[in-house]
Amino acid sequence: MKGCKNIWVWIETADGAAKNAGLELLTPGRRMADSAGESLVAVIIGNQAEKAAKSAIAYGADRVILVQDDRFAEYNTEPFTDAMCQLIKKYKPNAVLFGASGAGRDFAPRVACRVATGLTADCTGLDVDAETGIVRWTRPAFGGNLMAVIECPDARPQMGTVRPGVFKKRTPDENRTAEIIRETVKTPPEGRSKLIHRISDAAENMVNLEEAEIVVSGGRGLGKPENFALVRALADALGGAVGSSRAAVDAGWISHTHQVGQTGKTVGPKLYVACGISGAIQHLAGMSGSDTIVAVNKDQDAPIFGLADYGIVGNLLEVLPALTEEIKRLKTASDSELK
User: Fold this and answer.
1) Is residue 239 part of a domain?
2) Looking at the domain assignment, is residue 196 inside a domain?
3) 70-124 pLDDT per residue, tens
4) Hey, which residues does 68 pair with through a beta bridge?
5) Does residue 33 form part of some domain?
6) Which H, E and C letters describe 259-325, residue by residue?
7) What sign does the CA torsion over 274, 275, 278, 281 have?
8) What is the layout of strands, in order, in the sheet containing 179-183?
9) Which residues, in sequence order, are CB contacts of 305 under 8 Å at separation 6+?
10) First to last CA, the chain
11) What domain range is 272 assigned to?
12) Is residue 143 located within the same domain as residue 222?
């Protein structure tokens, strides 16, 4: 595809609001667009998504392409793919970034196949050559033992999915203004699947580590699966989510949905508490972007202490209950003062 320019970011929506995965990608997208002398374009396919368009502008988009229709109220592979391919054919972007959410991992490869281009999946790093416009996609390879840099020099648009939590959202500027292009697409095909019923209770119990502001993770240092109760108690006291190392998942102590690391989820919370986690490079790659890291481990030489902002050397069975009780006490005292 000749004459391709601009960096696109697909903004996934839920009930008309932008999801974090897409807003996070506006951060590297902004840097890449500026480096290549191109525009950063947010692409939104949804319904009643004006709020999402405004959010995309506030987080750095130069332009928003907005497709709205009742048929796009819920993500569905075939109609979304058809709509995105029509937009790509019309506007010819240089690169398209997708969040590696459940929908993004389904959507991006279907679009890439349809427009006959390559796709780099589950990226943890992005860069662009300012002269050629070639994107350098960095992703873990060989089970996370090394990082591969992948380029797609010939086909366009260049496409990739990026793990949520790898990049942090910019500080939004609500006063920013940008053009919103309201597009219509040809009637998309009916999807071969459709939403019958949303089970709210199940959704509420799903682990959403990528968007959690506080994550408390446990590793093999807990000794046995029953001791994850201490991690959950601390997470509850802090109002956070429960994570884990791969070792704990492989041991069958906790489900894979809680795993943090190169082969799990990438998180960037305000506070990350690592309990009984030694700090293998694969785990550090999944949480090193956290604002503040606290490590609790009985081994004072554990690699995790090299990354942690605060470290506690001690027995987890004694330290975690003490931390939990102290946090509860402080919260109670704070509530009393407010009254």
Assistant:
1) yes
2) no
3) 888 889 898 999 999 999 999 999 999 999 888 999 999 999 999 999 999 989 8
4) 46
5) yes
6) EECCCCECCCCCEEEEECCCCCHHHHHHHCCCCEEEEEECCCCCHHHHCCCEEEECCHHHHHHHHHH
7) negative
8) 119-123, 158-162, 95-99, 7-10, 40-46, 63-68, 179-183
9) 279, 295, 297, 311
10) 65
11) 203-338
12) no
Do 155 and 96 sit in the same domain of this protein? yes
What's the total number of domains in the chain?
Answer: 2
**176 and 207 housed in the same domain:** no
The Cα–Cα gap between 158 and 77 comes to 20
- Residue 14 identity (one-letter amino acid): A
Give the C-alpha separation, 314 to 296, whole Å: 7
Tell which residue, 281, 274, 319, has the closest CA to residue 295: 274
Residue type, 322: A
Burial of 92 (0-12, 13-18, 19+ CB in 10 A): middle
Model pTM score: 0.73
Quick one: tokens of 199?
């089970």
Please report, for the domain that includes residue 135, its CATH number: 3.40.50.620
